[in-house]
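Field log, afternoon session.

UNIT: design team B
ACTIVITY: writing a sequence onto a fixed backbone
BACKBONE:
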């Protein structure tokens, strides 16, 4: 009880979410738990042992097993909308919001496939439409290109109006990597 309100621990909340939420919702919750360092003496693996047949436990077990391959946390709805496009076309997930070091500088990129040296930037007008962002995006793209990275920029409208075309282009870019 906190302030007279019944609450559960973070691990128990994730287990409860796994029973009713989508795989992606549970995946995002696990990422948030890791990023925020939310721990409890009774861990999620402990609860998997305690409730082996509870609804959602299989999904949670799979996600924890895949944890080493986790691609990072999506930061916004645009990035989150990109995940189903990848999944529905059988494309590998990138590392989301990853840092890349180039020319003595660090850049945070939306989507990174390091082995293929491919970066996808999901460009919303609100963030990338300013004069400053326009200039810094071009400088960053130039420095990345010189270092051997390929940058593909996708807008919200393109993601929603041309998903098959984007998936096809992305598949080609990943194959050429």
């Amino acid at each position: 009880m906190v302030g007279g309100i019944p609450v559960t621990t973070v691990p128990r909340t994730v287990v409860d979410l796994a029973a009713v939420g989508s795989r992606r919702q549970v995946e995002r919750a696990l990422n948030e738990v890791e990023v925020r360092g939310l721990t409890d003496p009774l861990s999620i693996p402990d609860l998997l042992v305690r409730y082996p047949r509870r609804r959602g436990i299989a999904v949670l077990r799979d996600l924890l097993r895949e944890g080493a391959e986790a691609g990072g946390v999506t930061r916004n709805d645009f990035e989150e909308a990109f995940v189903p496009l990848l999944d529905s076309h059988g494309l590998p997930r990138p590392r989301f919001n990853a840092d890349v070091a180039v020319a003595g500088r660090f850049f945070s990129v939306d989507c990174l496939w390091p082995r293929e040296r491919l970066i996808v930037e999901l460009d919303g007008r609100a963030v990338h439409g300013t004069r400053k962002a326009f200039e810094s995006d071009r400088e960053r793209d130039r420095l990345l290109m010189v270092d051997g990275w390929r940058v593909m920029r996708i807008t919200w409208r393109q993601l929603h109006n041309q998903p098959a075309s984007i998936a096809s282009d992305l598949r080609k870019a990943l194959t050429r990597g």
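LOG NOTE: The two ends are 53 Å apart (CA to CA).
NEXT ACTIVITY: expression trials, pending approval
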